[in-house]
Amino acid sequence: MLYFDKMLNRANFNAEKWSNTRQKKLFKKDHLHPMWIADMEFMTVPQTIIDIKKRALEGHFGYEYKSEDFFDSFIEWQKKIHNWHIDKSWIHTAPSVSSALPILIEILTEKEDGIIIQPPVYHNFASTVKSMGRKLYKSPLKLTFEFEMDFDSLEELMEKDHTKVIIISNPHNPVGRVWREDELRKLSILALKHGVRVISDEIHRDIILTGHKMVNMMTLGDDISNNTITLLSPGKTFNLSGQSIATAIITNPIISKNFNDFIHMFHLNHNNILSNTAFESAYKHGEDWYNQMIKQVEGNLKTLKEYISFKLPEIQLIEPEGTYLVWLDMRKLQPDPHLLLDALSEAGLAVDAGHWYGREGAGFIRLNLACPESHLHKAISLLKSAVESLRVPSN
């Protein structure tokens, strides 16, 4: 675990979460302790660092193609970690999940068509839909003893004439749900019934916490598979987001052709040599590192849960089932999301504000647990200071 206890100096390398300029813009203060943005405070897989260095030292960076080992490493990882058997012909690459999403929207929908999202959810979904001139339909998650899909709302929205796509997040960012097979099957049946395509953003799919199981919709039957596109990346799993490489898993031959045509038309299929190296190496050599990372995240979650339970009872920690993110309900302390963010910033803490994920997230915050324990302890101390400033004095 020593590998995950080492604090990195990322402030000197244009790391977005450590940028004082970015912090000043979003939080009105700088030099804040960063617990926001979904990347890790860990070095990546040791062998991957070696392989990138080795390739860079070759000194030539001309045109290259993706090797069989590139695809095989990914296929073997999905089979071993998730028991998901993927055919190479299903694999389509893109610069990122965030760039694959608008490509799919472009080929699956027309202007003014409706697209469903389930807020609070990754803010890129809403901004991408709106920027492309599509109608944004919201089916908010329901919070009972856990966050749940609202199937009545989903069917009502799918019944609309121009609803063409639903985008889901699994594991869900930011609430941490790993959708169960029965939930995914019910959603898939509704989508098939109403002719709605499913885009499943599974960028966090490898980060599944103990006691939970990742189910991919495309394993639930051929009809469901052909109606679903899965988006994946090694970015979250191995802290490689800056390498910009992702995959879209598509079994439907028509969608596959249209996706490939779009990729080639805009020359998005060009290779980044070091990204290819990182992708192949991490999937090939990253399993031990990955297992240790999960233990570190689970240890951090245990530490945070215990502290909140005993010292900060006004906060409700929403138990995550997946991702290295945790969703905290702060509404008892301050329901106004802007005043809440100000209080946290004043205490010296940079977090992802809940309302950034839709108004349904107002009064919540998202914390990133992919960090050394010492980094978390400092964050807990700052969180305590913020809570103390928000507590209403007793008369």
How would you describe this structure in keywords?
four-stranded antiparallel β-sheet; Aspartate Aminotransferase, domain 1; 395 residues; seven-stranded mixed β-sheet; 14% strand; 2 domains; Aspartate Aminotransferase, domain 2; alpha/beta
Q: How would the blueprint of this fold be written?
A:
Elements: H1 20-27, E1 33-34, H2 46-57, H3 68-82, E2 91-94, H4 97-108, E3 114-117, H5 123-131, E4 135-138, E5 142-143, E6 147-148, H6 151-158, E7 163-169, H7 181-194, E8 197-201, H8 222-226, E9 228-232, H9 235-238, E10 246-250, H10 253-265, H11 273-285, H12 287-311, E11 316-318, E12 325-329, H13 337-346, E13 349-350, E14 352-353, E15 364-368, H14 373-390
Helix pairs in contact: 2-11, 3-11, 4-5, 4-10, 6-7, 12-14, 13-14
Give an overview of the whole structure.
This protein is of the alpha/beta class. It folds into 2 domains: 147 residues, Alpha-Beta Complex (Aspartate Aminotransferase, domain 1); 224 residues, Type I PLP-dependent aspartate aminotransferase-like (Major domain) (Aspartate Aminotransferase, domain 2). The strands form 4 sheets. A 7-stranded mixed sheet has the order 2-10-9-8-7-3-4, sandwiched between helices. It is globular and about 65 Å long. The mean pLDDT is 96.
